[in-house]
Structure formats: C-alpha cells, structure tokens
Amino acid sequence: ICSFSVSSRMQNVGEQGHMALLGHSLAAYISVLDRERLRKLTTRILSDTTLWLCRLFRYENGSAYFHEDDRDGLVKVCRLVINARYEEYASEGYAVLSSKQPVIYQSASGRPGLGQHLCSQLGLPLSSLCTVPCNTIFGSQHQMDVALLDTLIKEDIEAGKLPLLLIVNAGTPGAGHTDKLARLKDVCDQYSMWLHVEGVNLATLALAQVTSAIMAATRSDSMTLTPGQWLGLPAVTAVTLYRHEDPALSLAAGLTCSQPVARLRALPLWLSLQYLGHNGIVQKIRHATALYIVVFFLSLFLLMVASSGGSVEGYCAGDKEVLDAFNRWLGEQLVQLVPSSGVDVVELEDEGTCVRFSPLLTAAVLGTQQENIEELAEKLAQLLPVMCSTMCLRQDFREETHRHSPSLAYIQDLSWPGLGAVRYEPQTEGMDESRRKQELEKINTELLKKLQDLDTDIVFSTGPEFGTEEHCVFIGMVTEDVDVSELVDTVAALGRDIEESGRLLENMTEVVRKGILEAEQQLQLANEEKLMEEGMLRQLPLVGSVLNWFSPFQSSIKGRTFNLAAGSLDSTEATYSTKAQTEPWVPLTLYTSCLSVVSKGQRLFRRSGAGSESFSETSSIGQAEDAEESQESSLHTPVEEEEVTSEERQPEGQEAEPSGR
After folding, report:
1. Is the pLDDT of residue 462 over 60?
2. Where residue 436 falls among pLDDT bands split at 50, 70, 90?
3. Which long-range contacts does 360-363 make (Cβ < 8 Å, 24+ apart)?
4. Fewer CB atoms inside 10 A, N or C side of the chain?
5. What residues contact 142, with CB distance under 8 A and at least 6 apart?
6. Burial class (CB in 10 A: 0-12, 13-18, 19+), 483
7. How many helical (H) and strand (E) elements, i.e. helices and strands, does the chain have?
8. CB hemisphere CA count around 566 (13 angstroms)
C-alpha cells in the first residue's frame, strides 16, 4: 500500500517536464565551451528569461535571481537592504549594526522557520525578528494586522532600532489568504522599509483578469516566484524578482554573479518557457485556478457534530485534540483514495489540523483534472457522515464501557480517530505484577483476534503504531446505525469467556494431576488386595498359571477409568456389564456462550435488529439452559423408546432373550 500511494503521487512528468530535465544535461555540455562564447550565451539566456518572467508576472523593470532554495532569494534581498541602509557596512561589517539594530517583520501566518533562517544566514540575533500577529476582530484571521504593525514599528523606532524589511504573503502557506498588500506598501513607504512578497497566489498575475488584492504585489520591492510548482516543471529553480538601481550593491549582496556557469541555472526554465509559450503557461495556471472552487479545510468540526443531533457532552476538555485526530484521519484517507487530487494535511495555529486543497501548488505537478475533483467531493461526502456518527457515539461508548466496570476499562486516547479504546481487566487477585501483566496481555490479545474474526465492517486494531497504551483494543470509525450497547456487551462477553476458558484449562490440569495421584494410590491398594486374595503362589509365573488351570480364581478387583470431563476416577464395572461406554453429562454453558457471542457479532452490531437479536448475558444463559434440556432429551429419550419397542415385540407369556446371546 505504501509503495502504491507513493508512486501514485509522483510528479506527472510531461513533455515540458522532460524539456526541463534536458536543460540540466544541456547546461553541463554548455559549460565546457570557451569562456567568451559561454559568457555571451549565458548572458542571453539570463536576460531573456528575466524579461519573460517580468512581463509574464507584470513586474516592470525588474531583475531576477535564480536559486535552488526558495528562501535563498530573500536572504540575498536582506543583504542588499542592509548594504543600502548602512553605508559603512561594506567596510565596517556587522559592527555598524550595533548602533541601530535592524528589524525584520513577518506575519504570524508566514512560513514556519523562515524568520529564524534569515537571522541565522545574516548573523542577526533573534531579537531582530518581529512577528506581527494577525487580525483578531476585523478581517481574516490569517491576514497581518496593519494597525498593530504600525504600532510595533513606532515602538522600535523609539527604542533606537531601524525597521528594515517586511515580509508579506500573497497566499499564506496554510490557508492561502492574502495580506492587505496595498495598505502594507503604504506603511513601508512611510517608514522607508523594503517590502517583499511571496505566496502561491502570485501565479495569478499571469492571468488576464487579476484581483486588486493580488495586483498590489506588483508594487513591491521584491517577490519570490516558484514556477516549477505552478507549471509542473521538475528540478526548476525558484526566482526572486527585485528592483534596485545600484548594480554594485546587488553584486555585493550576491544577487548577481560574474561567473558564467552560475548563470546556467536559468537554462532549464528558459527551455521550458520556450516550449510552453505564453499561452501554455497561462493555460496551466488558469486550469489550476478553475479547480480552486473546491478549496476547503475543516477546523470547527465540533459544530458539525452538534448539528447532527448527537451527544457531545464531555468534550469540553481535549475536544481540540480529538478534532485534530479526526481531521488528520480525513486528510490521510483522501490522500489514499484520491492521490491525484493533491490534498494534504496542514497545521494552523488557531484552527489546528486542517485538510488543504491548493491546486496552484499541486495540479500541474500531479496532473489533477476535473474528474479527480469530482471523485474527491464524492469520497468526502462518504467520509463525513462516518466521522460525524463516530464523534457522536464516542460518549455513548465511554458510558457503556463504564457500565461494565471493573471487567472493562475505558482507555482515554484523544489522538485516536475512532470510537475509542477498551481493555478487558481479568480477575487477578493473589497474582504478582509479572503474572498479572502476562494474563492481561494474553486475554486482550486473544480478545482482539476474536473481534477481528467477526463478520463486521468495524475495524479492531492495536491502535497507533507509536502509541503509549498497551494491551488494548482500539475500535475505528463506525456508522450511525451501530448499536454501541451490543458492541460493548459483546466485547465484555468475549473477554469473560476467554478468561473462563483459561481458568477451565488450569482447573482441568489440576484435576488431571490429582486424578493421576489418586489412580496411583488405588492401583497400589488394588495390587495389595490382589496379593491377599490370590496368595503368593499365584503370583509366581509358572506355578501361578498351573494353579489357575487346575483351580480357576475369580478376582473381585475391578478396573478403573479416569473421566476427564468430570474429573473423577470411576469403576469400569458399568462398562463391562452394559457392553457400552457411558459418560456422565457435562454442561456446555461456556461453549454455548462463546458460540452465541460469535453468532451475534456476525449481525454487524446493527441497531435495527437490537430488540430481538442483540447479545446479552440473559439471552446467553437462556440459550445454555435450552442446550442442557435438548442434550438431556437426546441422551435419555432414545433409550426409553428402545425399551418400549423391545417389550412390544415380545410375544405374550415369553421373556425377552438376553441381548448378549
């Protein structure tokens, strides 16, 4: 399954993808040309690619920096701004930063770890990083709070710091929201700050119709693009477009390179853009945006459960962790069922675990089509009712499990996406801790096997692979028509039967041991009695045979037979007198109870037939009594009929002949 899911989500490499891969091989061949020809060719490739990207994404008079790590362009931009704002930085280095500490501002909804990476690469302390919270009252909860940003900048200026750069999002990594770019640009102009934009929504700048919120990104000082994701091009570099008039500072910051070989990084993208053309590029981005109507993420799932009419009491504590587990399960199921859709699971600060569908990031890579989206919606419609019903029944499952205490113990595991977990607790009085653990593991392992053998669509397992709970039975998702009471009753009854079966086996072992000792004692007594009755001469081999021939001796010593079922040592006299082996009847209550549980488990625990078919202890005992009566009738009735028939067949006045004639 793992190999299938991985291969099914591999990048869809079409002809344009092969063209990009060909660019890497071609770059290696071009690098061996003589220096002058290499310089001219790389300059042409770099200038053409920069011009095409600036025109395509409406970024006039821009320069381009091509980089493998999509964070590297922002690092180089920060160095450019530091060189521009600190005139003596080129000669004095980081010493000039101590007079006015630079401050880099980023959104709380930005890429995790991006600010820390910048400080690490630039040699700045983490105090130079300021994370601006998002809106809490007005607007989207994933957009930067502009008013609060203005307040933070004023406070830093009063503290003698230098506001250096602001990082904003045109499509946050988690929820895909766009900051108020126009207002943020005005704030940056007011305080002479550099504005850098990144995000997946920048791809829509290539379309004919662009929203004003995204169009404001063209006023920024720099932006980072990832055309490889948007166009489905493998191993293509990211691009940072920027505007700056001093080429010397750009060279000092590393945004331009004098080495011709380094400029060949743009060759795979250059070939791909040539192959696709303007119309092909726009078509791919338009196709992805057309799929955007199915964007969703589930964070307030508890509201859905409440609206379904289920019982949600008891979820005040830990309900967020439960919802995260259910949403994580939903995302993983959708990834396996519809791998070409490109859905994934993301963690948001306020909402928690959510399911994200961002076709601008995945549609071109995975080749997502409209039928994949329709299949995704269909699978989602199938999974949501199961999630709702399971969430509703979790509390009922907990209460039913507590009702069977102390034989059943409810296991609280908020990270389990299912009905819940339960452990059967056997009676372990007088056992040491090691023996108790062995008994607990043995019974619950056997209980899990028996539950898995039942003909039901409910999944029973040992729980998460790296879970902390041991020797438990974890129950997965269930539908709304599942009878939780019957399910828990079955678990309790199966566990009890397994425990009693183990004790019966232990008791039988003890009975056999005692029976052997008793048999040895009776055999010894029988030998002594035989010696006293027959005398010493009859024990001699030759003399005894001759003496028995002349004077036969009828011994009064009877044989013995050991009855395993009854655990008793009986005489064989009845066997030899009736010429048939007879056994005392043993109740089969335990076996009948187990059989009843299995047959009821095959009913799929459905509530529709609970009135007449649900398993209960009373019905189990009643079935056992019926079995006893039927077995008694089968043991005694045929004998009585045979006696009556034999008497009727005898002529009047005659006695029946012995059956042994």
Report:
1. yes
2. confident
3. 360/171, 360/200, 360/201, 360/203, 360/204, 360/229, 360/230, 360/285, 360/288, 360/289, 360/292, 361/200, 361/229, 361/230, 362/229, 363/232, 363/287, 363/288, 363/291
4. C
5. 109, 134, 172, 174, 175, 177, 348
6. buried
7. 24, 15
8. 10
CA dihedral for 631, 635, 637, 638, sign (positive or negative): positive
Q: Mean of the pLDDT values across residues 533-559?
A: 62
Residue 383: closest CA among 342, 461, 327: 327
In tens, the pLDDT along 11-32 reads: 566 677 777 788 878 888 888 8
Take residue 492 and report the two structure tokens written for it: 């309790």
The SS3 assignment for 598 reads helix
- The answer to whether residue 659 scores a pLDDT higher than 70 is no
CA–CA separation, 624 and 390 (whole Å): 34
CB 304 within 8 A of CB 390: no
In the beta sheet, which residues pair with residue 345?
A: 355
* Tokens (6 digits) for 403: 């009702």
How confident is the prediction for the chain on average, in pLDDT?
A: 79
Other CB atoms within 10 Å distance of the CB of residue 476: 17
- Asked whether the predicted pLDDT for residue 326 surpasses 80, the reply is yes
Residue 59 neighbours by CB distance under 10 Å: 24
Token duo for residue 449: 């096997």
Per the document, the length of the chain is 661
Angstrom distances, CA of residue 498 to CA of 445, 518, 583: 10, 30, 26
**Per-residue H/E/C for 175-241:** CCCECCHHHHHHHHHHCCCEEEEECHHHHHHHCCCCCHHHHHHHHCCEEEECHHHHHCCCCCCEEEE
What per-residue confidence (pLDDT) applies to 504?
Answer: 61
129, HSE (Cβ side, Cα atoms, 13 Å): 19
Q: Read off the tokens for 481.
A: 């028509």
Q: Are 333 and 253 a contacting pair, CB within 8 Å?
A: no
Contact by Cβ (8 Å): 220, 197: yes
pLDDT digits (tens, 9 = 90+) for 536-548: 655 666 666 666 6
243: left (phi over 0), alpha (psi -120 to 50) or beta: beta
pLDDT (tens digit, 9 = 90+) per residue, 328-352? 999 999 999 999 998 988 888 777 8
* Distance in angstroms (rounded) separating the CA atoms of residues 345 and 215: 29
Between residues 362 and 630, the one the model is more confident about? 362
Question: What does the alpha-carbon distance between residue 229 and residue 326 come to, in Å, rounded to a whole number?
Answer: 29
**Cα–Cα dist 308/653, whole Å:** 85
Q: pLDDT tens digits, residue range 225-284?
A: 999 999 988 889 999 999 998 999 999 999 988 788 888 899 999 999 999 999 999 999
- Angle, alpha carbons 493-495-498 (nearest 5°): 110
- pLDDT level of residue 578 (50, 70, 90 thresholds): low
